[in-house]
Amino acid sequence: MYPPESRFARVENIDLTDLSFWARPYGDRDAAFAALRRRPEPVRFHEPALPGFAHGSGYYAMVRHADIAEVSRRPQDFGSLPTAISIVDLPEEFNSFFGSMINMDNPQHARLRRLVSRAFGRGMAAEFEAASHTAARQIVDDLMADGPGDFVRQVAAIMPIAVLSGMMGIPRDDYEFIYDRSNVIVGTFDPEYVPRPDQATAALLKTSHELADYISRLAADRTRNPTGDLITRLVQAQIDGERLSSEELSSFFILLVVAGMETTRNAISRGLLLLTEHPEQRELLLSDFDKYAPGAVEEILRVATPINWMRRTVTRDCEVNGNRFREGDKLLLFYWSANRDEEVFSDPYRFDITRDPNPHMSFGSVGPHFCLGAHLARMEVTVLFRELFARLPEIRTVGAPRRLTASFVEAIKHVDCAF
Fold first, then answer.
1. What rounded mean pLDDT belongs to the chain?
2. Is the CA virtual torsion 87, 64, 104, 319 positive or negative?
3. Is 414 helix (H, G, I), strand (E, B) or coil?
4. What is the mean pLDDT of residues 242-247?
5. Interacting residues of 379 by C-beta distance below 8 A, sequence separation 6+
6. 12 to 44, 348, 407: CA distances (angstroms)
7. Is the peptide bond between 148 and the residue preceding it cis, with omega within 30 degrees of 0?
C-alpha cells in the first residue's frame, strides 16, 4: 500500500512548521513525508514565530531512516544542546525545568544518565512489572465499574501515571494534578488546554513551576523520611560522591511526565484504535496473546510514533550521507517519517503485528539518547492490553478520535470506548 494521492505529495505544498499540517488526516502526512524522502537532499523549513521566543534561521528536515540513524550515532557532530525538544531556542528561564538529560551532551549527559539509571534502569524490571500489574488490574476494575467512556481519560492516561506514581509514592489523589499539568506541557498550543496562543509561554512556565515545586516537596520529605520508593532512590543516588541537584531532579520529573507518561498513554490509545480498525490483527493477537503481544507492541509503537521528532544542532561543519551541513545548522529528526521509510519497511502503511524485523525509531535511534524507559513503556503497554483483553475481550474504540494540536507529541486527546 502507498499513501493516498494528496496535494501534499508535492514538496512545495508542505510546511512542517504549520500546526495545521499536523492536524490533517494521516494520509496527507504520509504523502508529504514520502515526497520529502524522494528528494536527494534535506528540505529546509522556516521556524515558527512564537510569542516570547527568538526567531531562528530555520531547520533541515531529516526524514530518511538511514540519515536519522547516522546523525544519532554521531553526538560529537550533532548535539542536543541547547535543546532537543524545541525548534526555537528556549528562553533562559526555561532551563531550570527543561534542562534535563534529553537536552544535554556528554559528559554532562553521561553523568546524569548514570545517576538516574541507578534508580530507574533495567535492574528495576521486576518492580516495574509488579507495579504495572497492580495498576492494570485497578484500571480495569474501575472501567468495569464505571462503564464505557473516554478511553484516554479512563485507561490510557491513568496507566503510566499510576505505575510511576505508585513507585514514587505519589498518592492517588494527586493523579489529577499530574494529568492536568502534563496536558498543558504537551498541549501548549492546543486551545483545549491553553485557550489563547499568546498565553502559551506563561502557561508553560506556570505549569513547570508547579511540577517543580511538587517534586521538590516530595524530595524534601524523602530526604527526612526515606521510604525506599523511587523518589527516595533518586534523592539518594550518587556516583563519586555526586547527587542530583534539586534543579536536576525537577527537570527529570518533568521529563518523566512527558517522556514516561504522555508517550505511553498515546501508544495505548492508538493501540486500541489500530486494533479496532484492523479486526483481523486483533483476532490474531487474541488467539495467542503471549505469542503475538511482543510483535503487536512493536508495531503499535511504530505506527503510533508517540514522539514525532527530536532536534539536533550541528557542532562543526560535516557531512551526512553526501549532504553537507554547517556548524549551527538545526536538524529535525522526523521519527514519524523514518518509521514509514520504504527502504526499511516492507509495505510500511500496513499495520502488521507479525512484522519482523521492525527497527522502528519510536524510542529514538542508536546512540546515547536512546530512551532510558523503553523497557518500561513496552511492559506497561503489554501488561495493560493483557488485562484488558482477558477481562473485556470485546473492548473497542467507537467514533472518531480527537487529536492533540501539536507537532512534537503525536497524541489522541479523547476517544470513546465500548464493551
1. 92
2. negative
3. strand
4. 83
5. 125, 128, 129, 132
6. 11, 24, 19
7. no
